[in-house]
Amino acid sequence: MRKLWGGAFNETTAELVDRFGQSIQTDLNFWQEDIIGSVAHARMLGEQGIISPEEAKALIDGLERIHEEGPSYLKFDVEDIHTAIEVRLHELVGEVAGKLHTARSRNDQIATDTRMFTVNELLALQDEIKKLQGLFLEISSRESGTLMPGYTHQQRAQPVTLGFHLLAYFWAFQRHGTRSERIVTVTNYSPLGAAALAGTSFPIDREATAHELGFIAPIPNALDATSDRSYIMDALHLCALIMIDLSRISQELILWSGKEFGFVKLSDTVTTGSSIMPQKRNPDMAELIRGRTARAIANWTTLAGTMKALPLGYNRDTQEDKPPLFDSLRKCRDSIQLVYLMLETADWQTQRMAESTYGDFSTATDLADYLATTGLPFRQAHEIVGRLVRHCLDRGIVLEELTPETLAEIEPDVPAAALGVLSAAGSVARRESLGGPGPNAMAAQLSHANLLFAERGFPRIA
């Protein structure tokens, strides 16, 4: 296996050692970043007089040729992507290729590649988040009056609307977008020129390479520049948080698409069948998102465990930072797109949702609230309504079936006018407090969400 070192060694490394340490297959994820970083480095070397302008041009021309060719022209019997590119560069421009690594180490090179890759991927992820938010807004606006049960503890709680429920996810993803922007900011600093750990004796211009590569500035301390992987942990944590929310949506779609709920029919395009049961329509994509969320969480804890005891300076352990990063970012983007597809093609069973709010005692709180408005302490009102619910259950009736006569028989102290607050539609209509599902509150919330959505990026909620 070809390497960028070995002059001080009398023997070649064992085949198992080569195979165990090889990273070329995963490194291919950022082959473009490696080339772009090398172009900036070569240009700076020429401008600083460290190599001649002609040599710098030859290196840049060769690197651009490799970029045009794509990764299929690279050799894979090498340690890593840096070696693969330098080997190909030598084939194209000859011995001058050996000057590209002047004033640079693989330590700052890999850190540069990874930061550039992470920033680019997070920016792409932000686009996916924004697109999904747009769908939440569209459905929430359309279904703002669609009655459905609201749940706590997975038990019927209070009536809400489908639009209200899905709009909650808009705000969750607004936070994810804001987090992503912050991570881009802390990531977007340049390690290039830090060399192995202590900089270089060559008169390099780190500001120039940082500017060309789109970084905010060079990282001030060379040792920190080659040691830090906290930005990767930030990105992995973000992916885990996003996947957790995607898993929650997926779990709801799994439950709601079952016959026991019957709230939604998922499209053929996002479901699968059974090899033995012809009638089955399985929400496999939602289940896979739910399952793969565990991988995203594990990827964060894996790198945290790797980094927890490493002394400053580059350690080969950190070669294990990139497979989790690649895996989590890919799973996160794919899962966002799949949730978008499931929601975009969902057939909401709105009549079934509305009918499900009948007879579930979810307006009991409305009755207690009504009694509290008459001057009764809420705790006393709560006790009275609790007794009323128990009597209804004993009689096999529901709140909506109460008549003035039945009410007077069960709870004579409750006025008959209280029966007017027991409909699910009325319950929703009265909940006009900020953030509630009432029509005016929802209109205000949708207006707020649309204003934020129209802004570039992910501004703060308030």
Concise synopsis of the structure shown:
With 462 residues, the protein is mainly α. The protein contains 18 helices and four strands.
Commentary on this structure:
With 462 residues, the protein is mainly α. It has three domains: 88 residues, Fumarase/aspartase (N-terminal domain) (Fumarase C, Chain B, domain 1, Orthogonal Bundle); 215 residues, Fumarase C, Chain A, domain 2, CATH 1.20.200.10; 91 residues, Ribonucleotide Reductase Protein R1, domain 1. The strands form two sheets. Strands 1-2 form a two-stranded antiparallel sheet. The longest helix is centred in the N-terminal third of the chain and has 37 residues. It is elongated, with a radius of gyration of 30 Å. The model has no long low-confidence stretch (mean pLDDT 94).
> What structural class do the secondary elements suggest?
mainly alpha
Percent helix, as a range, is 55-70%
* Oligomeric category: single chain
Largest sheet: 2 strands, antiparallel
Helical element count?
18
Tell me what portion of residues adopts beta-strand conformation.
under 5%
CATH architecture of the largest domain: Up-down Bundle
CATH level-3 fold name of the largest domain: Fumarase C, Chain A, domain 2
Q: Low-confidence parts lasting 5 or more residues at pLDDT below 50?
A: none
Radius of gyration: 30 Å
Question: How far is the first residue's CA from the last residue's CA?
Answer: 57 Å
Query: Biggest sheet, strands in spatial order?
Result: 1-2
* SSE order: HHHHHHEEHHHHEHHEHHHHHH
How many domains, as an integer? 3
Shape: elongated
| DSSP summary, beta strand count | 4
CATH superfamily of the largest domain, called what? Fumarase/aspartase (Central domain)
The CATH class of the largest domain, by name, is Mainly Alpha
What's the overall average pLDDT, rounded? 94
